[in-house]
Design brief:
The structure is a single chain. The protein is α+β, with helices and mostly antiparallel strands. The chain folds into two domains: about 80 residues, Immunoglobulins (Immunoglobulin-like); about 140 residues, Beta Complex (Ferric Hydroxamate Uptake Protein, Chain A, domain 1). The chain has four helices and 15 strands. It is rod-shaped.
Length: about 270
């Protein structure tokens, strides 16, 4: 009576083993191509993600544009491909057990809209050697400058009318000359007269004792030398620390003003 019972048990185990499903094997593979030329797109990111659940994977296409996802479970998925310079390509898949899915994706080149670009060109000013130093220092911002454009905008009657508007400079009547003023720094009780150069040459110096007394150019009004219509540019230096070496004098501590006339002006196209 025991032998039939053993045979029944063995038969039941065999039936259970036969009913167990085989492991599912799904592979998704494909190639990514340029929609226009048909050329493979390498180093693109291809993303496969389950629409239900958290499974996802992202890989890069190889040199032939190929990609492969192994051991994917059945179910609905979303496939997306991205590459710089191309429009994103995407779609949905429903994967069944024990299947191999072959895909061909195409990506169109993305036209990138650039912000408007404004190109500004400046004509190079051609000047005589007399004015080269002035424009070089103007570009470097070595001192305080008054340009021809500023003079024309202000339309001063005299050069000193323009200078008196600058911080730290005061005007006072000159001892010599037919009119106009000289410029100084400091209060009236402690006045320090500024030295003037015109086209690189010293034209005024402060009144002082010693061998300089009686000089015909002491406290001469700069307005007697040059008029605003003749001026191309003006350089103003406050003291020894910012005054270029070619304009340093024994009176540099009071300040130096260098005026350049328009006789050296020529303009390039």
């Amino acid at each position: 009576m025991r032998m039939p019972r053993v045979c029944l048990v063995a038969a039941g185990l065999a039936a259970l083993l036969a009913a167990r499903p085989a492991p599912t094997q799904i592979q998704v593979r494909g190639v990514l191509l340029d929609a226009g030329s048909g050329a493979p797109i390498s180093s693109a990111r291809v993303h496969l993600g389950a629409t239900r659940g958290g499974w996802r994977e992202e890989i890069l296409t190889d040199s032939a544009g190929g990609f492969v996802f192994d051991d994917v479970r059945p179910g609905p998925y979303r496939l997306r491909a991205r590459r710089v310079g191309y429009r994103e390509s995407s779609g949905t898949l429903r994967l069944s057990a024990d299947s191999v899915v072959e895909l061909q994706l195409r990506m169109a080149v993305a036209s990138v809209a650039l912000a408007p670009v404004t190109v500004v060109t400046r004509s190079r000013r051609t000047v005589s050697p007399v004015l080269e130093g002035f424009y070089g220092r103007l570009e470097r911002g070595q001192g305080r400058f008054v340009t021809r454009e500023e003079i024309e905008a202000r339309s001063p009657t005299r050069v000193t009318d323009m200078l008196r508007t600058l911080p730290g400079l005061n005007g006072h009547a000159a001892r010599g000359g037919v009119g106009g003023m000289t410029m100084s720094r400091g209060s009236s009780g402690d006045r320090c007269t500024v030295v003037f150069f015109v086209d690189g040459m010293l034209v005024s110096q402060p009144s002082m004792g010693g061998p300089f007394r009686g000089s015909p150019r002491q406290d001469q009004a700069i307005d007697d030398y040059v008029q605003p219509s003749e001026v191309e540019g003006i350089e103003i230096y406050r003291g020894e620390s910012d005054t270029p070496a070619e304009f340093v004098t024994r009176w540099v501590g009071c300040g130096t003003i260098v005026i350049w006339t328009r006789r050296g002006e020529t303009r390039g196209e």
